[in-house]
Design a protein that fits this description.
The complex is a heterodimer of chains A (110) and B (120). With 110 residues, chain A is mainly beta. Chain A contains no helices and nine strands. Chain A is globular, with a radius of gyration of 13 Å. Chain A starts with 8 loop residues before the first strand and ends with a strand. In chain B, strands 2, 4, 5, 6, 9, 10 and 11 form a seven-stranded mixed beta sheet that branches. In chain B, strand 5 and strand 6 form a beta hairpin. The termini of chain B are far apart. The chains are: A mainly beta (110), B mainly beta (120). Chains A and B meet through strand 7 and strand 8 of A and strand 5, strand 9 and strand 10 of B.
């Protein structure tokens, strides 16, 4: 049971815009920023977004993030086949005194 | 370029211990910390603990505090994670990840992962 809640799956067709949600509580998302990781099949996770909406160097601007109160979202526009991956949200949790993750969302490009 | 190279897959029996290594290169080891994150088959990510590359300061997730030992060898830029009292539900891929300069709990580079299979 993950501390942050994500839908287990999402899908879209090439060129579409998809959104992945992440729900938490006051002790994590409500008081701290959210980060997102992308995990392609059989590989290690990769940092995709930090501080709610900041992209590391090399991440295309098709990826965007937002946060409101105790929820966050990752949006992917102009969906491409190589966006097919698992996406995880993460945040610091003040009660647990450590970082926590969502259960992951498997994105399928139809 | 920054690289974290982990040791190979392990098969262990219940009750045993396992040590996974993570050799860092491409950056000053003492300037960043290393976290350990595990992923059970088909499951999500779970943070286990963090160790500073500078002074060896450690933070453990409460769940693992009694069974995990994190260490570093600054002479070889290597971090180690020892997990004791293995159970079948410890079967997972174990990752080391570097903590970013923006916050040690933000993981900007990851090792390739080490599969630990606990089976009798």
């Amino acid at each position: 049971q993950s501390v942050l809640t994500q839908p287990p799956s999402a899908s879209g067709t090439p060129g579409q815009r998809v959104t992945i949600s992440c729900s938490g509580s006051n002790s994590n998302i409500g008081s701290n920023s959210v980060n997102w990781y992308q995990q392609l099949s059989g590989t290690a996770p990769k940092l995709l977004m930090f501080s709610n909406n900041q992209r590391p160097s090399g991440v295309p601007d098709r990826f965007s993030g937002s946060k409101s109160r105790t929820s966050a979202s990752l949006a992917i526009s102009g969906l491409q086949s190589d966006d097919e991956a698992d996406y995880y949200c993460a945040a610091w949790d003040d009660s647990l005194n450590g970082p926590v993750f969502g259960g992951g969302t498997k994105l399928t490009v139809l | 370029q920054v690289q974290l190279v982990q040791s190979g897959a392990e098969v262990k029996k219940p009750g045993a211990s396992v040590t996974v290594s993570c050799k860092a290169s491409g950056y000053p080891f003492s300037s960043y910390g290393i976290s350990w994150v595990r992923q059970a088959p088909g499951q999500g990510l779970e943070w286990m603990g963090w160790i500073s590359g500078y002074d060896g300061k450690i933070k453990y997730a409460q769940k693992f505090q009694a069974r995990v030992i994190l260490t570093t060898d600054t002479s070889t830029s290597t971090a180690y994670m020892e997990l004791r009292g293995l159970r079948s539900d410890d079967t997972a891929v174990y990752y080391c990840a570097r903590g970013s300069s923006r916050g040690w709990f933000l993981f900007d580079f990851w090792g390739q992962g080490t599969l630990v299979n606990v089976s009798s």
